[in-house]
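ugh finaly. both done.
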Amino acid sequence: MTGQPVVRVLIVDDDDLMRAGLRAVLSSDDTIEVVGEAADGREAVAVAQRLVPDVVLMDVRMPHLDGIAATRAVSAAVPAARVLVLTTFEDDDYVFGALTAGASGFLLKRTRPERLIEAIHTVAAGDALLSPSVTRAVIDRMAPAAPPDPARAERLRALTARERDVLQLVARGRSNGEIAAELFVEESTVKTHVKRILGKLAARDRAQAVVAAYETGLVRPGTDTGHPS
């Protein structure tokens, strides 16, 4: 054992072969327990309610109920479950919708097995997983259409200057370690800033904070300079 807690996972995908492959990968790791499978969004909601998994691996394009609607339903019905969206394409139009529906992050299906396992533990621990390449492609396309949220704009004004710096880097897909290195602070300090940011923005996790950063104009699509503006 690695000392990591065992994470209970529900696999949701309409492709039988993909579900079998994911189960094989995850079952080979003793920090993961696959507790169930679902072949469409409607079944995913029902199984999630029955099994209450820690993490739901959610496909996007599925019959009966797509991954966005299923993510919204699972997030509402099983708040303790974190949804990790798996998508085939970096420019998948549906991923931003899944993010706003409550997903804690997203990964490409072609990601390495060890990265997938790491991602599952990341979201299970309450952090968001935002693959920079996927995040950038989706936000660049979808953020301009995001409606302004006056309540979020008001909460944004409550952030300190350093908290705004941290949020900008979070929105650009930086990890806590990368943010610490860029701002020349300890990683524990970054974690404290992120916790305060989430509280002030009334955001469930980092993914929701990213949505707020783009909706309020703190970060704009296509402007990844590598430093807070």
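ok and the 2nd:
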Amino acid sequence: MTQPFVIAVDGPAASGKGTIASRLAAHYGLPFLDTGLLYRAVGLDVLTTGGDLGDARAAEAAARALDSGRLSNDAALTSGDAGEAASRVAGYPGVRAALLDLQQAFAAQAGGAVLDGRDIGTVIAPNAQAKLFVTATPETRARRRWLQLTGRGDPITYEAMLADIQRRDERDAGRGAAPMVQADDAVLLDTTDMDIEAAFDAARRIVEAARAR
């Protein structure tokens, strides 16, 4: 049986990994899952039901009740509040365990898949044939996210956005449950000085090299 060709794209917030992963999926005709949306949805569900993001049991309950069908049409999931909530709940082992099967089932599809997140290459799909770790400087990533949010009318300042990025990086890398780290066999792609076309081209070449092995 031919093994599904899985592309794992990991990296910190606003590194460009989501755009790169979605374009790789379109290029290779593979289904795509932005796993960060799962955690954003869990975090928002806790908030909208009046729960406390500091309550691990409430977050786990929200994860187990998650309807993944809403991920593609809920604009609130792209908000700054959703990103902060996701970073909070993603540190709970119970939340990660509740979402593990869903993500691994997606990665195991017969034709292959593309997934992006923080722990795809290390936990979700450790046997993925192509692994990328996409990053950029905190200042670059903060500017990208700041331009995105202010373009939608969010009044956040660049300084606040940079502080948020740095706080989330520290939280994601320091959590005990599946911390954000580069897999030993992942290829590092630094997009600091790249536009999206250059970043996608570099990512595609990394995947092509993996496919040729």
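summary for the 2nd one i guess: The mean pLDDT is 92.
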